[in-house]
Design brief:
With about 280 residues, the chain is mainly beta. It has 3 helices and 17 strands. Helices cover about 10% and strands about 35% of the residues. It is globular and about 45 Å long.
C-alpha cells in the first residue's frame, strides 16, 4: 500500500506499489485443470513470491478463502503481482468488464493483468486498460478488461455506496495480503469479516473511510470493502492502506461526492457502457 509520510503513521505496513514490484518475482499462471478447489488455493498456479517482513498481529482474525467461504470472494482478483482489484456490476448477473482498484497500484508501465479464481477452481485472466484514475490523494482507478467475464463464471460484486453504512457497522475487507503467515506471501486471498466502520477521515480526502479491528497487509491494495445487508453483498469502497494495530483506510464510494469529480458516478457510467447482461 502507499506510504504516508506522517509521524503518526510511521509504522504503516503497506509499502508503495512500485517498491512492491521491485521486490517481487512474478510466476506464470498455469491454466491446466488442478482439480480440487482447496488444493488449487495452495498450488503454484496463482503463486507469486512477494517479500514481506510483516509480522502478523496477535489479534489478526482474517480468514483464508476456501471452498466454504462466501462466493462473492471470486470477484476479488490479483492485479499483476503486487495488488488486488475487484470485478463490479449493477447486479450479480452482469457479464462484467469493469474492475476497481487503487491509483497507487498503477505506478508502472507494465501491462495490466487481472487474475481471478472461480468458485469451481478455474483461473480466468484478462488484460486491462485504465478508464479513469485519480492521484496520490484520490487513490482510485477504474479498469476496463479486454473482454467481459461471464457471470456464470464469476458474479461481479454489486456496486453500492457509503449511504448504506452507519457508524459501527460491520464490514468485510478482502485482498491478496502479502504477509507470510495467512496470506502466504500474496499467494492466498484473505478476508476480515469483522471490520468496524468508524467514520470518514477528515485528514485525507473526504472520500477516505477508516475501519478498526480490521487487518490487511501489502498486496491487498485495491481489494474490496463490502457491506452485507443480510441478503446481498455490496462493494462500497476499496482498500487503501493499513496500520499494524488493525486500522484500515479505505477509499469509499459516495453518492454525494465531496471532491472535484464523482467517482461513483463514473463507475456506474463505465458499467452501463461496457457490461452486459443476459435477457
Amino acid at each position: 500500500m502507499k506510504v504516508v509520510l506522517k509521524a503518526t503513521f510511521f509504522f504503516l505496513i503497506f509499502i508503495n506499489a512500485q517498491a512492491e514490484c521491485l521486490n517481487n518475482k512474478s510466476v506464470g499462471i498455469s491454466t491446466k485443470d488442478l482439480g480440487n478447489f482447496d488444493v488449487l488455493l495452495k498450488n503454484e498456479a496463482l503463486n507469486i513470491t512477494m517479500k514481506s517482513n510483516t509480522v502478523m498481529h496477535k489479534d489478526d482474525d482474517r480468514e483464508i478463502r476456501k471452498k466454504s467461504s462466501p462466493k462473492w470472494l471470486a470477484a476479488v482478483g490479483r492485479l499483476n503481482n503486487h495488488c488486488s482489484a475487484t470485478l463490479v456490476g449493477n447486479d450479480s448477473d452482469d457479464n462484467s468488464r469493469i474492475a476497481t482498484t487503487a491509483f497507487h497500484c498503477l505506478k508502472s508501465d507494465r501491462p495490466i493483468i487481472l487474475s481471478f479464481l472461480t468458485n469451481d477452481g478455474k483461473i480466468i485472466t484478462r488484460k486491462a486498460t485504465v478508464l479513469n484514475k485519480g492521484n496520490h490523494i484520490e487513490d482510485r482507478a477504474i479498469l476496463l478488461l479486454e473482454s467481459e467475464i461471464s457471470h456464470t463464471d464469476i458474479e461481479p460484486l454489486i456496486l453500492g455506496d457509503m449511504s448504506l453504512v452507519s457508524e459501527n457497522d460491520t464490514l468485510t475487507a478482502a485482498g491478496y495480503s502479502a504477509d507470510k503467515e495467512k496470506g502466504s506471501g500474496g499467494k492466498l486471498l484473505t478476508f476480515d469479516s469483522n471490520c468496524k466502520f468508524i467514520s470518514k477521515d477528515i485528514e485525507k480526502s473526504d472520500n477516505h473511510i477508516y475501519l478498526r479491528d480490521c487487518f490487511a497487509y501489502g498486496g491487498a491494495s485495491g481489494g474490496a470493502i463490502v457491506y452485507h445487508d443480510g441478503e446481498e453483498s455490496f462493494i462500497i469502497g476499496h482498500l487503501d492502506e493499513s496500520t499494524l494495530e488493525g486500522g484500515v483506510y479505505g477509499y469509499g464510494y459516495y453518492e454525494e461526492f465531496y471532491s472535484h469529480e464523482n467517482f461513483l458516478e463514473k463507475i456506474f457510467d463505465a458499467m452501463d457502457t461496457y457490461n452486459s447482461y443476459d435477457d
